[in-house]
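Notes continue from the previous slide.

Worked example: a multi-chain complex. Inputs as given:
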Amino acid sequence: MFKSALLKLTGLYLLILLTVSMFFSFNIYRITTQEVQNRLRRQADFLVTKSVRTLKIDPFQKQRIREEVSSQQYVIGELVYVNILVLIVGGIGSYLLAKRTLRSIESAHTAQLRFAADASHELRTPLTAMQTETEVTLRDKSLTLEDAKQQLRSNLEELHHLDDLSTNLLQLARGQDIISFANIKVSDVINNAGDKVKHAARNQQIKLELTPIPDIYISGDKNKLTRMLVILLDNAIKYSPKNSVISISTTHDHNSVGIHIADQGIGISGDALPYIFDRFYRADSTRSKVNTVGYGLGLPIAEQIVKSHSGRIYVESAIGKGSTFTVRLPTQKSKS
Ligand code: ADP
């Protein structure tokens, strides 16, 4: 598909180039030959009148015509030569330009195909599991009511996961859609996010420690930023042992504020660190932990939200010691 598009675009660029080149060639030919004709005609007239009537006109006229024809041929030859050069150089240039134009479109297209393939794979796995389990249950002749309920509970759990997955996929696919920027207080966003995860933390007997946050304002979308912090806090809870502490703190300078979420969890290996923001990536240490549910979409969504606020997100981590995620966002001078 991209090969034929590349050829079409090359052809189009070349056609434009040749049209311009032919237009100029035609005009150069017309102007120069006209000028030569005029000059020769004037010269011939002059010589005819000068050499008095005794001389015949013929020799001058013949010479003039010869000069005219030879100059026309010369100009045509040069212009054909130049146009062939334009065709060769322009052809190569057009091909390279078309290739360059299509490169970014091609990589976006490939990324989209990969995303669709990964997404369908993730959707298919729980669906296949549900289908097999249901079929086995239906075939069971000694099925009790309790077995059936158990099956329904298991299906419901998978449906919840599928619901989460489709919400995340939708969010990623929508990308940077409508962001309603407003002047917001960093502490409001942190408190909102803290409220949303406090039950999950309590269930895991994890302590959320919030250091006092100074009055700092940023321009951003409160809901989206809250969602981003919830993703980071959820992960911190998910990948931390019971009775550990997760601390949320801030640092700031003239232009930016850093929000730090530090856990005492399983940590991320140096090999996995470069990939954790990739879609569908889950570190091996995470996959082997049976009780952590996830699809590897949380961090890509968090990164997307941070980037749409002109911010940065990065992580420092050590296996067995814990991870600290930092989100750095540009600040507003004051409340307005
Ligand atoms: P998931 O749904 O798997 O949590 P994420 O995109 O949120 O997907 O995270 C990607 C991977 O990064 C996780 O699978 C996990 O391996 C790693 N990770 C993220 N946050 C943490 C953390 N706080 N501690 C340890 N590992 C983490």
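Summary box: Strands lie at 182-185, 207-210, 217-220, 245-252, 256-262, 312-318, 322-330. The first strand starts at residue 182 and ends at 185.
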